[in-house]
Amino acid sequence: MIKLSNIEKYYGTYHALRDVNCHIKEGEFFSLLGPSGSGKTTLLRTIAGFERIDSGTVMIGGQSMDGVPANMRPTNMVFQSYAIFPHMSVAQNVAYGLRSQRLGQAKTAEMVEESLGKVGLAGYGDRAAHALSGGQRQRVALARALILKPKVLLLDEPLSALDRKLREEMQSELRRLQRSLGITFVLVTHDQEEALTMSDRVAVMFEGQVAQLDSPQALYKRPASKRVAEFFGAMNILKAEIIKVDGDIATTQIEGLGVAELAIPTDANAASSFCAGVRPESMTILDDAEQAYAKETAATVTEVEYRGELTYYDVKFEGSDTPVVVSMRNTSNRKLREVGQQVRIGWESASAVLLLDQN
Ligand code: ADP
Ligand code: MG
User: In CATH, what number does 223-359 get?
Assistant: First the structure.
């Protein structure tokens, strides 16, 4: 649906987008995720046609968008601040999306009501916009963007102004809306959890570059680099030495854990250096007789943090100084370990992932 090729964008001398390549499929819920300043909004505005690029191509629906102004593109955008006109009614706000269409009153009213229905605000047309709650205002902004039936809806941090509970409600609602409409959504967010729960695929951006484009599961389980791994929550980073390479599998010596066969990240080249990542929940402190894991390593507990559902243990593997976090679910029959205790940690090759060790 959207094909971005070799996009370069400068603001003066500032290199805002660096060789961005991205293929967004039709009907997909796609997210651009990255820290503040990573170029997400710039890329979204590039798709919308609000931003001139220095080189590269934007194709939408198989057509080059070169020279096509924003209002002629099959896209519509919902902005970070909802830009609702408080002095107008809900219906007037939604009809604003039709302003260039010169439709009759009856047709406009019908389309407004249809659009309000899609976002769960049927019958709200006569209300004053200023009397709406934050969540309702965001729905009005959505209805206004949907009224022209765009093939692609571009959403720039649409939920960031809402409090946590409302944000979570709106997340599932947006997801439902996207499924029922079947159109392509491109969402900008800096919130990892939001991107993981809502998206079919996510492009992770750092400093104007796409660092990895993958499904939420692949990003969490198989991050390609240390930076992506650490962006998605706690990841233990250990030194890793490659002993042998066989196709795309590397036999790897991991600090404190030992030898494992790990997949080599696709972006790796001869000059790459690596480390290994292990999530706290991918290792287990074994009970006395328990041996359900393919591999074991000896460790000492250095810190215990009980947090109700989970306990976080800081441990040190034998022969390593790197502190490692292991999280354990507090089931009824599991006893808490104590600082100084010697334990056995169960893990398997699938617990670890080989990461590009950039910067
Ligand atoms: P994000 O949406 O990921 O927070 P942006 O795309 O808004 O990031 O901005 C990326 C970088 O480009 C930032 O460093 C920002 O300061 C810069 N930038 C954005 N818009 C402009 C502009 N109009 N002029 C100059 N610099 C800009
Ligand atoms: Mg932004």
Answer: 2.40.50.140
Residues in contact with 132: Cβ distance below 8 Å, sequence separation at least 6, in sequence order: 84, 90, 124, 140
> Which CATH superfamily includes the segment(s) 2-221?
P-loop containing nucleotide triphosphate hydrolases (3.40.50.300)
Kindly state if the Cβ of 144 falls inside 6 Å of ligand 1.
no
**CA 175: distance to chain centroid?**
14
Q: How far is CA 97 from CA 103, 119, 207, in A?
A: 12, 15, 33
Q: Is 35 in the pocket of ligand 1 (CB under 6 A)?
A: no
Please identify, by atom number, the ligand 1 atom nearest to the C-alpha of residue 39: 6
Distance 200 CA to ligand 2 centre (A): 21
Please check the confidence at residue 100 and state whether its pLDDT lies above 80.
no
Domain range annotation of the chain: 2-221, 223-359
Both tokens of 100, joined, read: 């260039």
Give tens-digit pLDDT for 225-255: 999 999 988 899 999 999 999 999 999 999 9
User: Confidence class of residue 359 from pLDDT cuts 50, 70 and 90?
Assistant: low
Is the distance from the beta carbon of residue 38 to the nearest atom of ligand 1 less than 6 Å?
Answer: yes
In the reported structure, the alpha carbon of residue 258 is separated from the centroid of ligand 1 by a whole-number distance in angstroms of: 44
Q: How many Å apart are CA 158 and CA 81, to the nearest integer?
A: 7
Amino acid at 164: R
Angle in degrees, CA 192, 274, 354, rounded to 5: 60
pLDDT for the residue numbered 56 = 97
Residue 290: pLDDT over 80: no
What is the bridge-based pairing of β-strands 209-214 and 201-206? Answer: antiparallel
